[in-house]
Amino acid sequence: APQPELGVPLSPRAFFWLVSLLLASLIWFVSVHLSDREDAKLQYGLLVFGAAVSVLLQEAFRFAYFKLLKKADEGLATISEDGRSPISLRQMAYVSGLSFGIISGVFSVINILADSIGPGIVGIHGDSPYYFITS
């Protein structure tokens, strides 16, 4: 028998992922502009810091999305005729984790494709000309 669709549209998942990415980008942007731009070691440390903050914020927002789904599921269970939830807790966790991964992958592919059709040098400041192929 085919699996029932989990019923959660992509747009709320994408919204939560985009908000987490926006916050991480803002934190990194502010930290870079408030620091000494000539210090290469500090800038590398800020890059690592930005990546760590991005992962932590994405996980925090994924958890918040899971809690939102759980609350919505409880509401659906209270108004259903039999008092049972139509979605299991495992399915909700799977949906929130998978959706963040899908949106992240889509954005990664779109950035690579945008680099492939635009003018100029692909890569940053004279990096490998094989950037697009390896990506």
From TrEMBL:
Mode of membrane association: Multi-pass membrane protein
Keywords for the protein's UniProt record, in alphabetical order: Membrane, Notch signaling pathway, Transmembrane, Transmembrane helix
Domain of life: Eukaryota
A Pfam family that the UniProt record links to this protein: Aph-1
InterPro entries registered for this protein in UniProt: Aph-1
Subcellular location: Membrane
Listed GO biological process terms: Notch signaling pathway; protein processing
Chain segments annotated as coiled-coil in the UniProt record: none
Parts of the chain that traverse the membrane: 14-32, 44-65, 92-114
Cellular compartments per GO CC: gamma-secretase complex
Protein family per UniProt: Belongs to the APH-1 family.
Function text: Potential subunit of the gamma-secretase complex, an endoprotease complex that catalyzes the intramembrane cleavage of integral proteins such as Notch receptors.
Subunit structure of this chain's protein: Component of the gamma-secretase complex.
Identification of the protein by name: Gamma-secretase subunit APH-1
